[in-house]
Amino acid sequence: MKDQSHSPTLLIVEDSDEYFEVLSRIIMDISDRPLSIHRCIDGDDALDYLNHEGIYHTTGEHSNPDLVLLDLNLPGTDGREVLVTIDASKHLKTIPIVVLTTSSNPKDIQTCYESGVNSYLLKPMKIDELRYLIRVLLDYWFKVAILPTTSKVEGREY
């Protein structure tokens, strides 16, 4: 069993307020340890958060998330573009990315895996199915998988 002393950070990139509320409530209900959840509502916001730019520019420590749940169909810069940008960035490409979307388009699936996504999941429409999916996802990523550690870039923790 993995050491669970670290409190993981989860970045959820989701434009739907309703879906985010349901998702975050389920995560908090089933998580057996403290978990920090941050939400970005579109791709531009997510890239600013990950690159510590815009409103996320700080002089203090700001760690990257341990896991990103990314919707594909976002306003502005969509999830596909976010994946390409993350994959091209040396300090971001080791962050595990799970796409959680309604798109079952084979082209989207192929493109996402080619862009470095770690997993591609379809959003369940039933609450009990979503609860099961999130439980399995959290157990795998935060109890079983060994995640990369943060690294320092330009004096800031990433």
Shape: globular
Quickly count the helices: 5
What number of structural domains do the residues give? 1
How is the main sheet built? 5 strands, parallel
Low-pLDDT windows of residues? 151-158
Modified residues (4-aspartylphosphate): 71
GO molecular function, one term: DNA binding
GO biological process, one term: phosphorelay signal transduction system
InterPro entries: CheY-like_superfamily, Sig_transdc_resp-reg_receiver, TCS_response_regulator
Could you walk me through the main structural features you see in this protein, from its secondary elements to its overall organization?
The chain has 158 residues and is α/β, with parallel strands linked by helices. It has one domain (15-149): Response regulator (Rossmann fold, 3-Layer(aba) Sandwich), CATH 3.40.50.2300. Helix content is 38%, strand content 17%. The protein has 5 helices and 7 strands. It has helices at 17-30, 43-51, 79-88, 106-114, 127-144, and strands spanning 9-13, 36-40, 67-70, 97-101, 119-122, 152-153, 156-157. A 5-stranded parallel sheet has the order 2-1-3-4-5. The chain has a two-stranded antiparallel sheet with strand order 6-7. A hairpin with a 2-residue loop joins strand 6 (152-153) and strand 7 (156-157).
Descriptors:
single chain; 158 residues; alpha/beta; Rossmann fold; globular
